[in-house]
Amino acid sequence: MTDPTTRLDHVVLWVADPVAAAGFYESAVGLEPLRVAEFTEGEVSFPSVRVNDETILDLAPHSLAERMDMLPGSAAVAGRPVNHVCLALTSAGFDALRARLDEHGVPMSDIGHASFGARGTATRSFYFQDPDGNVLEVRHYG
């Protein structure tokens, strides 16, 4: 068993335009934008969007990749996307997000069933891409 006090803090997504990405995640996905004004004013390196009280998605501009030197070799792989990020929602939240993405004209996969995840087997799931090509999965556990 893993340490129950360990939590996912953030995931960094590479984006072409962090302000536009924050707008997409706010309007189409329903996440709260953070530090957008500070980014626009040059006070911080990137804005974020809040997933929940414990987790955010950082929206890093591609130009930040060349400065990713915290570990040897990390600059060489910076800027490459992750496979996908999965958001778990309630049944109502799942339906509301799917409807909101449809209203914004965001292409989505068909609804899948019985996929395994952190909380067991999900009842329903689907995938979509943000404007920068980052893939997100959304799922609902029964």
Blueprint (SSEs and pairs):
Elements: E1 10-15, H1 18-29, E2 32-34, H2 36-40, E3 48-50, E4 56-61, H3 74-77, E5 85-89, H4 91-103, E6 115-117, E7 120-122, E8 124-129, E9 135-140
What does this structure look like?
- The structure is a single chain.
- This protein has helices at 18-29, 36-40, 74-77, 91-103; strands spanning 10-15, 32-34, 48-50, 56-61, 85-89, 115-117, 120-122, 124-129, 135-140.
- The chain has two domains: 1-80, Signal recognition particle alu RNA binding heterodimer, srp9/1; 81-142, 2,3-Dihydroxybiphenyl 1,2-Dioxygenase, domain 1 (Roll).
- With 142 residues, the chain is α/β, with parallel strands linked by helices.
- 24% of the residues lie in helices and 29% in strands.
- The protein has a four-stranded mixed beta sheet, with helices on one face. The protein has a three-stranded mixed beta sheet with strand order 5-9-8. A two-stranded antiparallel sheet has the order 6-7.
Roughly how much helix do the residues carry, as a percent range?
10-25%
Total domain modules: 2
What about the largest sheet?
4 strands, mixed
CATH class call of the largest domain: Alpha Beta
| Rounded mean pLDDT score | 90
For the record, give the distance between the C-alpha atoms at the N and C termini, rounded to a whole number: 23 Å
Annotation field: number of helices? 4
User: What is the total tally of β strands?
Assistant: 9
Helix-strand makeup class: alpha/beta
Strand order of the largest sheet: 1-4-3-2
